[in-house]
Amino acid sequence: MEKLREYWVPKVLGEMERVIVGMQDPDMGVKMRNQRLLITVIPHAMTGSDIVEWLIQKFSISEEESLHLGNLIVKHGYIYPLKDPQCLVLRADDSPYRFQTPYFWMSTKWPAAELDYAIYLAKKNIRKQGDLIEHEKDYYNQLHKKINHTWDFVVMQAREQLRAAKQRRKGDRIVIECQEQAYWLVNRPPPGVLNVMEQGPERGNCYTTRVQMTKNMDFYKREIEYCKKAMGRTRVKSSICLEAYLKFNDQYMPHDPIMSGCLPSNPWITDDTDYWSMNAPTVTTPTKLRVERWAFNFGELLGDPLGHIQFMEFLKKEFSAENLSFWEACEDLRYGEQSKIAESVDSVYQQFLAPGATRWVNIDSKTMEKTLEGIRRPHRYVMDDAQMHIYMLMKKDSYPRFLKSDMYKTLLAEAVIPPETKKRVFPFMRKQRHSSPSPALLLPSEQDPKGEDKNKALASAAGGGEG
Amino acid sequence: MAKEECKALLDALNRVTACYRHMVLSVGGTADSQNLREELKQTRQKAHDLAVANRNKLTAALKDKNVSKEDKAEFERLWVIFSTCLEILETDMKRALELGLEFPLNVPKKHLIQTGMSGGTAGVAARAMSVQNMKYEAERNIDEVDLKDLEQEIHKVGEMMYEMEMKVNVPQWTVEAKQDPGAELKSTTSAGASSGGFVSIEERKGFCDISKLLAAIVFSAVLILAVILAVCVVKLS
What we know:
The complex is a heterodimer.
Chain A lengths: L1 H22 L9 E4 L4 E7 H12 L3 H13 L3 E3 L14 E4 L14 H14 L6 H13 L4 H15 L4 H18 L18 H5 L6 H16 L5 H15 L4 H4 L6 H4 L3 H5 L9 H6 L4 H6 L1 H14 L2 H15 L5 H13 L11 H12 L7 H21 L1 H9 L32 H20 L1
Antiparallel strand pairs in A: 1-2, 2-4, 3-4
Helix pairs in contact in A: 2-3, 4-5, 4-6, 17-18, 17-20
Chain B lengths: L1 H24 L8 H30 L5 H34 L19 H8 L12 H26 L41 H28 L1
Helix pairs in contact in B: 1-2, 1-3, 1-4, 2-3, 2-4, 2-5, 3-5
C-alpha cells in the first residue's frame, strides 16, 4: 500500500497547487486587498468570502462544497489566516487570508525536518525572549536531547537567520514570520489538533489480490473440500436463534449494571465503592441479584466462587461431593502446568478412578475404559470425557435439587438488597456525585486543600453508608 | 591558530547558508525576479567555495596527529556543525531547483504566487557576499540557464558529503553540544546586530528605531530648556 500512498498524496496536493495558481490570475483570480497594520501596509490579502465566491464561480459548485474545499486548502497550509493564525479554518466572512510561499508548500519529497523545526523554535525563543507555548517548550527540550550533537549549529543558524531577515523591509519581515508560523502549525500541530499529514491505517486488502494462485487441479480440489465442509456445518434457523437471544436478554437485563443501574450506586459516578465490596468474590452475605443468577444455569453457579462453595456444601450433605471435587481436579489438570501433568493424572486416578478409591466417582463403563486407556499416555485432555460425564450428571441431577433445596431458599431469603444511596437534605453532607479529578492534575502545592475536601467527602460517605 | 581560522570559516559558511535559505523562500512568490535568481547563483557559488575551504581545513586538522585531546574534540564538534550545515545547504539547493523548474520567469503562463512580499532581497544577498552593493551582470533568462548549473552543483555537494562521510571518521553521537537549552537568549559578544537590541515584531506595536531616537532627542531638549528656564528664574528672582 506504500505505492498507493505515494501516488495519492502528491496527486491531491498537486490538484490543490493548481487551484492556488489559478487564484493568482490578475484578471480572473481572487480579489486582492491591502492589509493595514499600524504603520506598515502589506499587499496581497484576501477575505474569506472572496475565496469562497471565487471557488463557487470557478468550479460551479454550491457554497457548502466551496467552503469545504476552501477548508481543505487552509488545513493543508496553502492559505493561512492572518487574524487568528492558530485556527486553520476558512471563514466565509471578511477575515483576512494570504497565500503561502511555494517554499513552504506541503511536499512529500522534503517533509518537515526536525533540524528545521529546532531552528525555528530557537528563533522564536530569541524573538519572544523565552516565552514559548507549552507544547513548543516540550518539543524544544525533546529536540535538544535528540539532536544534541548539532545543537550548536541550531543556535548559530537561528541567530544568522534572524540577522539575515533584518536586511529586509519591515513588511516583508512580518510576512515571513507569519509564513513560517503557519507552516509549522500545519506540520507540528499543537496537541489535540488534527494532523493532516498523518495517514490512517493502511487498508491491507491488496495482499489477497497479490497472491495469484494458479488455477490447477489442486486448487479446485481444495475448493471442493472447503465447500463440502461448509455445507456440513450445523445451522440454526434465525427465528430460533433470535428467540434464544431475546430470552437471554430478558433474563439478564435486570442484572446488567449499565442497563438497569446498580445498587447502591455506580462507583464510577459517585466514587462510592460499596457496590464492589458487596459483590466481592467471597463475601458473607451475597446480594439478592447474585443469588438469583445462580438459578439461571449451572455454569453461572459454578462460575461464581461463592455459589461454587455453597454448592459444594450442599453436595456434602447429599454425600456426592466427590463429583464436584473430581470436576475441580480435572479443571486443574486441563489448565495446569505442563510439567505436572503426569503427576496430576496419576493423583486423579488414585483418588477418584481406581477401584476402591476413597472418593470413587460413578462413571459408566464405556467412558471408564476409554479413560483408563488414555491414562497410559497421559496428556492434558485425557480426563475430558469423564469430566463431561460427571458435569452432565451434576447438572441434570444435583443442580435441580439444589435449586429446590431449603439451603438455597434460605440463601435467597437472607440475601441483601443494598439500599440506594440516599440524597442528603443538607447540601454539604451530600455525597459527591461527580467523579474526582484525575490525580495527575493534583499539583503538590494544591494537594492539602484538595485532600481536605476528599476527606470530608469520605466522612460523609461513610456516614451515608451506615445511615 | 588553526581553531580560530576554522571557526571563522564555519561562521562565514553559516552566514551564507542562512542568507541562501532566506532567498530561496522568495522563489515563486511576487518578490521573485531575474535578480533574485542571479543572487541565488552568486550566493551558491560563494557557499561552495567556503564549503571546500572548510572541508580542507578541517580534514587537515583532524588528520593532524599532534593535536591535543581537547583540540581534537573541538575539531570534531566543528566537523559535525560543518556537515549539518552542508546538509541544510543541499536541501535548500534541491528545493531551489524544484521551485525554479516550477516557476519559470519568462513564460507568462504561470502566475507568481501573491505572497505579500514586496521588497527585494538585495540586502540579504549583499550580506551573504560580504559586499556593500550587489552587481547584476547576468542575461535576462538566467532563471532557465542557471538550472543546469544548479543541478550539477547539487551533485557535487552530494558527492562531497559522501566523500566526507567515508574518509573522515567522526561519530556524530559522541559530540556534545556546548550550548544549553536557552543559550540563544543570552546576547552574544561576537559581531553583528545582537539579539539584545532586536526589535520585537508584533503587529500591534510598530516601533521604529528612528522615531524612538527622535522622541528621545526632543524630550531631552525640552527637559534641558526647562532646567535652563528654572535656573534663570531662580537667578533673576
